[in-house]
Amino acid sequence: MTANANAARRRRYVLAGVVAALGVATGAILLEVLGTILFALTVAYVLLPVQKWLVRRGLSEWTGAVAATLIGFAGAIAVFSPIVLTLYVRTEEVIALVEDVPPEIPVAAFDVTYTIDVGEVQTLAVNFLRDVAVSIASSLPVLAIKFALFVILLFALLYKGDAAGRAAVAPVPHEYRDVVYALAARARETLYAIYVLQLATSVASLLIGYPLFWLLGYDMAFTLALFAAILQFVPIIGPSLLVAPIALYHVAAGELAAAALVGVLGIGLVAWFPDVAVRPRLARRSAGLPGSLYFVGFTGGLFTLGAIGIVVGPLIVAVFVEAVDLLADEVNGDATFDDLAAADPDAPAEPAEAEPGGSSDD
């Protein structure tokens, strides 16, 4: 019986190795659409609870998967269509706005005038915007195909998500499956934080930014508000990357009152207020990843993987942090506080237990 069990275990490991090798080969072949596949995987992971909730409400597995797919489809359209249309249709207006910035900005301080040369940065920005417009125009057919692939793959993952999850966990020995489940839980919380928290704060920035920029008299109020919403996905600094250049533009033009107005209201209402008003209400199910680590994952993923790195970078960092926590718990699990205090006479007193309901969310 033991020999048969060992043989079955070896067979399972061999099959897992074959699947891993074929997965690497498949990834190499599908490299051009790998970002689309990863995006579909992460969105499906977030929408699986929605599909299960719909099934519990009486829908069939297939109908629930279709409904959840439509939710993902509508969300993707709502997020990406304004971005594509803005960059494609209004690029010339944005370029004209950048070209209106004076090539040299005088700054006076302590009776000394300094001149900041922004001509080179201005040229780089204009060239970048033109390249983006041309790239989007030439990539529209490819983007349509990738979007169709995203929808089809999203439905397949939602419809057979449980079977795929069981197949992925099956080769893992039972004594290690708690590690897999812990990493999966951290991944789900991180994706919730990225897709739900960040998207909610982005929508809030858009809804606040549009009337604000319109009341301040900007011709491209919606475009500016949309850029502010997109920049909410950039951790820590976020929409400040938009508000600060606008304020500097007014300073360069000698409009100090306008600079102060857009700087204070833009930072306060567009950048800061959504984090205060929206994030705490939705942060209950988030991973609580510190902002510094989120920023590292965001920037590293963006520069390494491109647009999909905005999601994959923080996800990998969060899973790595969870693995480190699991290792620390495993190593120190048998050492009680009293044992540590006995080994170190200078150790601080045992901390009091936190009050029920207390939490610390970054």
Question: What's the structural blueprint in terms of helices and strands?
Answer:
Elements: H1 2-29, H2 34-56, H3 61-89, H4 91-99, E1 104-109, E2 112-117, H5 119-159, H6 161-169, H7 177-215, H8 221-231, H9 240-252, H10 256-277, H11 279-282, H12 291-305, H13 309-332, H14 337-343
Antiparallel strand pairs: 1-2
Helix pairs in contact: 2-3, 2-5, 2-7, 3-5, 4-5, 7-8, 7-10, 7-13, 8-9, 9-10, 12-13
Written account of the structure:
Residues 343-348 and 350-362 have low confidence and may be disordered. With 362 residues, the protein is mainly α. The protein has 14 helices and two strands; from the N terminus they run H-H-H-H-E-E-H-H-H-H-H-H-H-H-H-H. The protein has two domains: 29-171, no CATH class; 174-333, no CATH class. A hairpin with a 2-residue loop joins strand 1 (104-109) and strand 2 (112-117). The protein has a two-stranded antiparallel sheet.
Would you summarize the structure shown here?
With 362 residues, the chain is mostly helical. The chain has helices spanning 2-29, 34-56, 61-89, 91-99, 119-159, 161-169, 177-215, 221-231, 240-252, 256-277, 279-282, 291-305, 309-332, 337-343, and strands spanning 104-109, 112-117. The longest helix is centred in the middle third of the chain and has 41 residues, at 119-159.
